[in-house]
Design a protein that fits this description.
CATH class of the largest domain: Alpha Beta
Order of helices and strands: EEEEEEHHHEHEHEEEEEHEEH
Structural class: alpha+beta
Number of helices: 7
Largest sheet: 5 strands, antiparallel
CATH topology of the largest domain: C8orf32 fold
Number of strands: 15
Shape: globular
Radius of gyration: 20 Å
Strand content: 35-45%
Length: 296
């Protein structure tokens, strides 16, 4: 599939801001499963944009605005081609034995240990007992963990904030895609399975999905012989060609879409709008694919 994505973040300040410094993770990644063919940024007020690649391989931009301003608008536009299967097969052949014998695992220290928003669940045995012991068939167990989180947590945009930790999300049994991903990552890391946080977008299509109105988040687990496999506990599905990956990290803090500091007003409001559409050349093909299940 090929998508066009427009992402606009706007900050409104109650009083004039003298200066602001902003870092953004909004540029879709290019890897064996997708390719970003176009990416543009529009900043108002205008600013000089600098770019760098962080230690996780994400493309990051940052800028400073020094003249006084009472609003800040960041608009990015991307074209992305995704190449995953529409109906990916579950990673049933992934085993603990294969993971233990994989020499690449030693590179994934960051994704095996605690991070600012993801804590191990060893102290709360009752939570771990919910998911059962993984045994040797860790691929099937990861799918089980995803199903269980989806079934026992409520999607509630008012239950948490961007700073909510795993322990808090578990206590509330509610949250948004960020929280669902953090909980799954915590469970997998507690079981010794490398797991990382992914930010991006999900295409709504003709089905009901959660998280399509803004940036989305999910979990990836390292499961040899498959490599990194994506799980979306918010929607209880494996990652397919409806998903566009933007950034990877230990947790939300590493890849927050927009973060920054400013000097001035103590009060501000933020609005986020995301529009994701199939590129015109793919529209007819997409419509045909949507009709196929109805004809069976």
């Amino acid at each position: 599939m090929e998508y066009t994505i427009a992402h606009q973040t706007t900050y409104y300040y109650a009083d004039s801001v003298d200066e602001s410094y902003t870092v953004i993770h909004l540029q879709p990644r290019s890897d064996p499963h997708q390719f970003c063919t176009k990416y543009t940024i529009d900043i108002k007020p205008q600013a000089r944009i600098n770019s760098y690649a962080d230690r996780f391989g994400n493309d990051v931009q940052h800028f400073a605005i020094l003249p006084p301003h009472d609003s800040l608008s960041i608009t990015t536009r991307s074209n992305v081609v995704t190449m995953l299967e529409r109906e990916p097969l579950p990673p049933v052949d992934a085993t603990r034995t294969a993971l233990a014998e994989d020499s690449k695992v030693e590179r994934f220290y960051d994704f095996l240990h605690e991070s600012p928003y993801v804590q191990f669940l060893d102290a709360d045995k009752s939570v771990l007992e919910e998911f059962g012991a993984p045994g040797d068939e860790i691929g099937a167990w990861c799918s089980h963990v995803m199903h269980h989180i989806n079934a026992t947590f409520s999607y509630d945009t008012d239950a948490t904030t961007v700073r909510t930790t795993v322990e808090e999300a578990i206590a509330r049994r509610a949250g948004v895609c960020q929280d669902f991903a953090h909980v799954m990552i915590s469970v997998l890391r507690s079981a010794g399975i490398p797991a990382r946080y992914v930010s991006g977008y999900i295409f709504r299509g003709e089905s009901r999905v959660l998280g399509a109105e803004a940036s989305h988040a999910w979990c990836e687990a390292y499961l040899p012989p498959y490599g990194w496999v994506g799980f979306d506990p918010t929607n209880d599905r494996l990652i397919n060609d409806y998903f566009v990956k933007v950034a990877i990290g230990r947790d939300y803090r590493d890849v927050s879409p927009v973060r920054g500091v400013y000097r001035g007003s103590r009060r501000s409001e933020m609005s986020v709008n995301v529009a994701m559409d199939v590129l015109a050349g793919y529209q007819s093909q997409f419509s045909q694919l949507q009709q196929q299940p109805q004809q069976q």
